[in-house]
Structures are given as structure tokens and as C-alpha cells.
């Protein structure tokens, strides 16, 4: 009984922290990953309640479908330079060349 309560407390903490992370994180990609963590921990709660079918549907529909859709949307909408901030060179404020090669 104590192990079940401890597991419930741990996964409740994971669910709440991932849900807060979804709202508070500025990066869309990290927010989508935290949403996946929250949805998976809700599926664990369903397993603990002996509702295995609901847990399977939670994983298949939400994690497998909605989260993959969000991932594809983030990958398609994200611009080329939005993944990492560009380093600004001292001359003119243009982005520096990250390859280190000479400009010809």
C-alpha cells in the first residue's frame, strides 16, 4: 500500500511539473516534449487505477497522434535561423560565419 501511494505521489509530481513546464517554457519544442511527459504520466495514473484500456488509448491517441502532429507542425513552421540564436559579429552586426572558413 505504501509503494502504491509513493508511486502515485511521484507520478502526480511529474504530471504537475510537466504541465507547469508546458505553460512556462518559451521554446515550443520543449513545450511539446513536456506535454508528452505529462500525457504519459496521466497514462501511468490510468494503469494504477487498473484502467489499462484508457491508458492504451491515452498513449495511442494523445501521445501517438496529437504529439506527433504538434512535432511536425513545429518542424514545418520553424524558420531556418530560429533554432539557435545567431552570433553577432563586431563588424556591422551581421551574423558570424559558424563554419570558420574564409569568404571568397
Query: What is the ordering of alpha helices and beta strands?
Result: HHH
What is the CA–CA distance across the termini? 71 Å
The percent of residues in helical segments reads 55-70%
Kindly give the count of domains: 1
Average per-residue pLDDT, rounded, comes to 83
**Count of DSSP strands:** 0
Total helical segments: 3
**What structural category arises from helix and sheet content?**
mainly alpha
Biggest sheet layout: none
**What percent of residues are in strands?**
under 5%
- CATH fold category name: Four Helix Bundle (Hemerythrin (Met), subunit A)
Named CATH architecture: Up-down Bundle
Q: What would you give as the CATH superfamily?
A: NADH-ubiquinone/plastoquinone oxidoreductase chain 6, subunit NuoJ
CATH first level: Mainly Alpha
Amino acid at each position: 500500500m505504501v509503494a502504491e501511494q509513493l508511486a502515485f505521489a511521484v507520478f502526480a509530481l511529474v504530471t504537475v511539473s510537466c504541465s507547469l513546464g508546458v505553460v512556462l517554457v518559451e521554446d515550443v519544442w520543449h513545450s511539446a516534449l513536456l506535454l508528452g511527459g505529462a500525457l504519459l504520466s496521466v497514462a501511468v495514473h490510468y494503469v494504477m487505477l487498473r484502467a489499462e484500456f484508457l491508458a492504451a488509448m491515452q498513449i495511442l491517441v494523445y501521445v501517438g497522434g496529437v504529439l506527433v502532429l504538434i512535432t511536425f507542425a513545429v518542424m514545418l513552421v520553424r524558420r531556418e535561423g530560429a533554432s539557435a540564436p545567431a552570433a553577432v559579429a563586431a563588424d556591422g552586426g551581421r551574423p558570424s560565419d559558424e563554419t570558420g572558413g574564409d569568404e571568397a
